[in-house]
Design goal:
The structure is a homodimer. Chain A contains ten helices and 13 strands. Chain A is an alpha+beta fold. Chain A folds into two domains: 142 residues, 60s Ribosomal Protein L30, Chain: A (2-Layer Sandwich); 169 residues, PurM-like C-terminal domain (Phosphoribosyl-aminoimidazole Synthetase, Chain A, domain 2, Alpha-Beta Complex), CATH 3.90.650. In chain A, the strands form three sheets. In chain A, strands 8-10-7-11-9-12-13 form a seven-stranded mixed β-sheet, with helices on both faces. In chain A, strands 3-6-4-5 form a four-stranded mixed β-sheet. The first copy, chain A, has a two-stranded antiparallel ribbon with strand order 1-2. The two termini of chain A are 37 Å apart. At the A-B interface, helix 1, strand 2, strand 3, helix 2 and strand 4 of A face helix 1, strand 2, strand 3, helix 2 and strand 4 of B. Strand 2 of chain A pairs antiparallel with strand 3 of chain B.
Chain lengths: 340, 340
Amino acid sequence: MTKISEIGEFKLIETLTEKVKLKNSSTIKGIGDDAAVLDYGYKQIVVTTDLLVEGIHFDLIYTPLKHLGYKAVVVNLSDIYAMNAIPKQITVSIAISNKFTVKATEEIYSGIYLACEIYGVDLIGGDTSSSVTGLTINVTALGEVSKEDVVYRNSAKKNDLILVSGDLGSAYFGLLLLEREKEVFKTNPDVQPKFEGYDYILERQLKPEARKDVIAELKKINVKPSSMIDISDGLSSELLHICKASNVGCKIYEEKIPIDASTQNIAEEFSMVASVGALSGGEDYELLFTASIKDFEKLKNNEHFEIIGHIADESEGKIIVTKDGSEVEIIAQGWDGIKE
Amino acid sequence: MTKISEIGEFKLIETLTEKVKLKNSSTIKGIGDDAAVLDYGYKQIVVTTDLLVEGIHFDLIYTPLKHLGYKAVVVNLSDIYAMNAIPKQITVSIAISNKFTVKATEEIYSGIYLACEIYGVDLIGGDTSSSVTGLTINVTALGEVSKEDVVYRNSAKKNDLILVSGDLGSAYFGLLLLEREKEVFKTNPDVQPKFEGYDYILERQLKPEARKDVIAELKKINVKPSSMIDISDGLSSELLHICKASNVGCKIYEEKIPIDASTQNIAEEFSMVASVGALSGGEDYELLFTASIKDFEKLKNNEHFEIIGHIADESEGKIIVTKDGSEVEIIAQGWDGIKE
């Protein structure tokens, strides 16, 4: 096994990037100069960046390195889609202990390249460095969108429908399961982790996808959301972001929140309420968006998303109607990368 | 002192970014959505990213946090200028132990904002996270340039002049000085560090500048370099990058390498040869560029840069002519972020 300290930065970068093929005509120059060069003509560009830190965002005990690379890209693409834009380029910065093997870094990059392949984005640059301890990955993603199509989070209007794509809470319960089995393993390393039947929630946690298909579907049915955000920190937190930015209130219905059957099952196993995981868990990378009531016919009964409520006047507050009919103020208990 | 763990990520970001004012008309949307939105019309965009890791790239024992923030931005802008482009936007990702105070993070950001102010760039987004240990800063910078003006590193031609801006080696000796005084301090904390008279080399190490003025000067005298790179890892390493990318050789003259008098003095104090610091040290953030011999009259005797040699045929090798007249093959002993 070659330690990365043995080959040095330039050789490592060469090893990791020799397979890069540029896919987008807007990418004039990718890796190999001081900076990448893009040409977008009359399109608008969206830019986002996300940091994944070992011990904070991921645990290498149960996170395969390939999945980690994949996820590091996907969480950024999710932000690009949330602008109603199409991701085109990424840069990747990695700080990694030089005790890691070259093989390990290649594993990370194999996940990065797989995500690039599946989502049609170009890796156009990055930086690679030692770390004193721990692994840190920072991805910056760029995407394009025409002026008319870009969707912000500050433009939800009273009476707009509130929708979410896919289902929520699964990634959170996937994390709880991984943490539980880790504790069991720490107590008794001979016990095999119990992961059978949990494939869906584990995959949602370890290898999430960005909802490229939802953006395509909205285009297909000719609906432009009035506001949109991706759900990375829990539904509550994201909904409050939209309400705050748009100066509106909202009313959503607990029973409308889409939750997969396997998420429901494991929630019961943990003696928890599944919708709490949806509201306050994180890392679903689904899309939360609002749309005019005029688009109701186009949006209803679509397998890609669910109508969960509507935007209200700011004075009406941010309300969730629970299954028993009580109205409760929504508070953000979303995942916080800073608080302990 | 408020610990950052007490206020959480969103409040921290709010605290750190409330003063941001966008300066560039190409910045349609900065912080506050999933991604930033840029509009460049028919310009090309250049993108670069750099990672600074505590214990690898900086030592908080002698690095003021404000300087660190400033430097994290400047090293990226230097890459943008090296494309003959004008930096316009940056994103900043910071992973920081939540034992740091809010005041400390504000110090870092005050340096970031100062650099934004001085170089006319917009902070358009970022990510903030805890770290288990140590501080990591990743900056991504975007800049614009017209198609005709962009300068790559792979287009140096035989007989082109080789030039460097400013002077070299000072940042390296600044680092040696800081490390020396740190060792003295560790042995005897009562001894005050000896920094008088060393202002220039210390500033070059702790608060480097990107050569915006050199790019402006080249435009003013109407010279477009045939290739360009910024000097972050030592002159040898960067020159070899240009030669490799352009499939050429080179011949430079040790006596022509610009070295400041104070750098010369401290090199003697360390019983070292100053030009070794210039060739193999790092972090000068000067520009190394090549230009057609036809531009010689425009380039000679310019206070912004020095002609240090010329591009040769690949078969002639990469040669430095030392002060005693011997010809020596240039090898890269530049700073490597991975090797120990």
